[in-house]
Amino acid sequence: MASAHTIGDKTGAWVGKIGRRLLLLSAFALGLIVSETGWLQDIILYWPDIEYLAGEHITLVLVSGGLAILTGVPLGIWLSRPSMRRISETLMQGLNIGATIPTLAVLALSMSFLGIGTQPSIFGLWLVSLLPIVRNTYIGLKGVQPALIEAARGVGMSPGRILYKVELPNALFVIFAGIRTALAINVGTVPLAFLIGGGGLGELIFTGIALNDTGMMLAGAVATAFLAIVVDFIVAQIQFWAIPRGVNPLR
Amino acid sequence: MITLDKLTKVFDTPNGPVTAVDHVSLEVPEGEICVLLGPSGCGKTTTLKMINRIISKSSGKIFIEGRDTDEYHEVQLRRNIGYVIQQIGLFPNMTVEENICVVPDLLGWTRDKSRKRARELLEMVALDPDSFLKRYPKELSGGQQQRIGVARALAADPPVMLMDEPFGAIDPINREVIQDEFLKLQESMRKTILFVSHDIDEAVKMGDRIAIFRDGQLIQSDTPDNVLAHPKNSFIADFVGSDRTLKRLGLIRVRDAMEHNPPTVRAENTIEDAVALMKENGHISIVMIGPQGRARGCLRLAEIEGKKGRVNEHRSSLPTTIDINADLRSAVSTMFAHDLSWLACVDSDGFYKGYISLKGITHLLGETYRDQIDPIAAQGAATS
Q1: ipTM, 2 decimals?
Q2: Are B207 and B351 found together in one domain?
Q3: Whether residues B12 and B95 fall in one domain
Q4: Which residue range is the domain that position A216 belongs to?
Q5: Are residues A60 and A174 in the same domain?
Q6: Can you tell me the mean pLDDT for A207-217?
Q7: What's the CATH code of the domain at B165?
Q8: What value, to the nearest 5°, has the Cα angle with vertex A201 and ends A195 and A206?
Q9: Which residues, including other chains, have CB under 8 Å from residue A176's CB and lie 6 or more apart?
Q10: Do A157 and B106 touch (CB under 8 A)?
Q11: Do A246 and B138 touch (CB under 8 A)?
Q12: Residues of B with CB below 8 A from A244's CB?
């Protein structure tokens, strides 16, 4: 165990070192390209648009992602209950198949039911981010050692208390991993929502493509990528600090 | 006190009903450890888990302290029963302190009271509270984890404990240590304990009584010495092992097997007196004691016969002595190690209390077989 740890730590440090160098190198290359092509000026030209559309973009992410967490986690918990054993696997298979439908198709479908605008966009995005959350909640809870649950029953905890005090804390890391994946997908999918009138940074990207305006397209794409990194960073920080040390492999 | 009355469990399987526990009736007196022993699949664990209703019973009654447990809600019942399992089951998301305080918190103790109790318990299981209270289970060794597991079960001071192979996952050296520690604790706690094990040596060591199961039935429930000396049938004889008589050595203390008030001589006695004393008792050696009664040396008949003088001039030193509180296992081992057929038995202050001989031990172990015909031997004799 101890030796595995040190090897892991060494590899981690090594990867970290390479990663930092690559990051520096790519930042340098990016700066070179930007200054050579004059794209930076183009992007700055669109700054007011970026600000406004990023606001829309973030709203879409927060609302659809938040809804996905609020519904996905309870759904995962419900599916993991012993009384659901008979149908839970079938339902999970159903959700898995649902996940193979291309995101664009999901948005198109929600448009055909709910029309154009923010509402169908949120619905489509919610559906897309739901699966990783449900699946990780379900797997995380199913993966809690049976001995822990037996011990919890043995000391006289009620089923609700076992869920709240033992099962959820021990599944939290896996659940958070699901939320992280879901939000990463969500942020990356929001640009498509522009196609059904949802707004967001997709407006710059798709208009830029249509007008063959690389600067405009990049203004949207770079901002989206930056948002994705920021969101992932925030969730990672929450994951690191909110999960107790005893069940957090990162700490 | 725990009383089981015709306790039965029938599992419904696709191949029809299977009786896992079949009309088991058993009584564990207040303050005793009863070990449920048997091969895997014999129903011992199922029996244990029916008591705190981790597994529901099919029929029969369970009484704890004289009260039918059906009267309690299961959550209420479990909070009053200490439960230790082989996988330990410490909650990884909680610190050692939080783990120990789980039951007190459920019972609504004040924080001060429960945290104080956690410190007290850690000291009881021989762990330093200051360095362990704030640690997480993953930061502890297996042996330390199981100590915490025991502490957690003891937290609310339940009168009854259920232990399901609690020391099974611990390495043999640590297991011995924890077993000894637990027995020492039990001396002062006097809990009523049901203890599941598949290891006859552990059962003999831990149990005041041993209940041996086979195919869901309770075959024999008796003291460890009786189980070893008088196995009820060949299954039990096989299960406890062909060296079962040797295992009994570990159960008997030297004080119970030695010859009390043996003849002794003092330094100032004459050799003639010593020889006369030995001949009178039919002994070939005699122990010389000091003025207070401590064993000082010995005289051998063959060496001193016909010689003159005082005992002091002819005595030889005792090669070794044995403490009267030691078990016969170590006594026999000492005899073999020193090539002796007898040992002088002394108490912890060195006072000479008696002697123990190989012949005496053989006689004692054989006695139980002679006063009651060994059913296994009788079976063997009948078939041959």
Answers
A1: 0.77
A2: no
A3: yes
A4: 40-247
A5: yes
A6: 90
A7: 3.40.50.300
A8: 50
A9: A235, A238, A239, A242, A243
A10: yes
A11: yes
A12: 93-94, 136
How far is it, in rounded angstroms, from Cα A75 to Cα A62?
Answer: 19
Spatial CA neighbour of A192 closest among A122, A89, A143, A93: A122
For the whole prediction, is pTM greater than 0.80? no
Q: Are residues A67 and A135 in the same domain?
A: yes
Residue B373 domain-assigned? no
B85 and A152: CB-CB below 8 Å? no
| Count of domains forming chain A | 2
The token duo for B236 is 């039990």
% residues pLDDT > 90 (chain A): 56
Q: Let me know whether A134 and A21 are in one domain.
A: no
Q: Is B76 on the interface with A (CB under 8 A)?
A: yes
Q: How far A147 CA sits from the closest chain B CA (Å)?
A: 5
Q: What is the Cα Rg of chain B in Å?
A: 27
Q: How close B160 gets to chain A, by Cα (Å)?
A: 13
**Closest chain B residue by Cα to residue A148:** B89
pLDDT of residue B164: 94
Q: Nearest-CA distance from A112 to chain B in Å?
A: 46
Question: Minimal CA–CA distance to B91: which of A81, A170, A190?
Answer: A170
CA–CA min distance A140, chain B (Å): 14
In chain A, residues with a C-beta closer than 8 Å to the C-beta of B105 are none
Same domain, residue pair A2 and A20: yes
| Same domain as B265, residue B238 | no
Amino acid at B176: E
Pull the structure tokens for residue B61. Answer: 């009654």
Per-residue confidence of chain B (384 residues) as pLDDT tens digits?
899 999 999 999 898 899 999 999 999 999 999 999 999 889 999 999 999 999 999 999 999 998 999 999 999 999 999 999 989 889 999 999 999 999 999 999 999 999 999 999 999 998 999 999 999 999 999 889 999 999 999 999 999 999 999 998 888 888 989 999 999 999 999 999 999 999 898 999 999 999 999 999 999 999 998 898 888 899 999 888 888 888 888 888 888 888 888 888 888 888 888 888 888 888 888 888 888 888 888 888 888 877 888 888 888 888 888 998 888 988 999 999 988 888 999 988 888 888 898 888 888 888 766 555 555 555 544 444
User: Pick from A5, A26, A59, A63: which is nearest to A201 by CA?
Assistant: A59
B24–chain A nearest CA distance, Å:
22
Nearest to B247 by CA among B163, B168, B365: B365
Indicate left, alpha or beta for B261 from its phi (over 0: left) and psi (-120 to 50: alpha): left
Q: Which residues of B touch A249 (CB under 8 A)?
A: none
Which of B77, B91, B106 is opposite residue A148, by nearest beta carbon? B91
Chain B partners of A152 at a C-beta cutoff of 8 Å?
A: 89, 91
Contact at CB, B93 and A166, closer than 8 angstroms: yes
Q: Residue A165 and residue B91: Cβ atoms within 8 Å?
A: yes
